[in-house]
């Protein structure tokens, strides 16, 4: 876990393609031997980090996104909460911008959750009948572009609602319905103390247990040794 967190910190300030093993071990305060005990290379480290984070974010969405609602509401909620999370915790947002999509990750990661909701919306007739790949590109591309815009230009009130609104319109939802769905109140359920990277960020005060609506803007300070 410590190596993954150190990799996340470095990715917040540098391109992952420019980093070397020496950068990570220096940040983590471990030996090269320790690094290679867990990861074969820098791409191996960031591949593992990407898979783990996307799975944890997907689990967070499952806890926060309303259940028993239509695909449009699920998708809009996922986009809005994800945008707020990645912007309120900049180190996550900056790393997210560097993740490639389409991905070959787990079927339960955040990208596949979005694809699932797009597919369900098309099947339910909530979205226009289109290839799922096109619908997913509209949603995921808008999410990634929204993260980039907020990190570069700064926070903008209601921006995540506007992104969700435009995604729904792009998927064929009428403007009035898209406006209503993209502005629905989001739940703020307490998140249990979870293992993994998000749990560690919560322990360090970077991510509050209440979810992204209560995320702190403080950056992680200090480091400790431990598992990768």
Description:
With 228 residues, the chain is an all-alpha fold. It has a domain of 156 residues: Tetracycline Repressor, domain 2, CATH 1.10.357.10. It is built from eleven helices and no strands. The radius of gyration is 18 Å and the shape is elongated.
Brief summary:
By secondary structure, this protein is an all-alpha fold.
Key phrases:
single chain, elongated
Mind sketching the topology for me?
Blueprint: H1 2-11, H2 21-28, H3 32-38, H4 42-64, H5 71-88, H6 90-96, H7 110-124, H8 132-153, H9 159-170, H10 175-181, H11 197-203
Helix pairs in contact: 1-2, 1-4, 5-6, 5-7, 5-8, 5-9, 6-8, 7-8, 8-9, 9-10
Q: Mind describing the biggest β-sheet?
A: none
Superfamily (CATH H level) name of the domain at 58-213: Tetracycline Repressor, domain 2
Compute the separation of the termini in Å: 4 Å
Q: What is the beta-strand fraction?
A: under 5%
Architecture of the domain at 58-213 in CATH? Orthogonal Bundle
- Which runs of at least 5 residues are low in confidence (pLDDT < 50)? 189-193, 208-227
**By helix and strand content, what is the structural category?**
mainly alpha
Shape: elongated
**What's the CATH class of the domain at 58-213, please?**
Mainly Alpha
Mean pLDDT value? 83
Order of SSEs: HHHHHHHHHHH
Instruction: Give me the oligomer status.
Output: single chain
CATH topology of the domain at 58-213: Tetracycline Repressor, domain 2
Please give the number of β-strands: 0
State the share of residues found in helices, binned by percent: 55-70%
Number of helices: 11
Gyration radius over CA:
18 Å
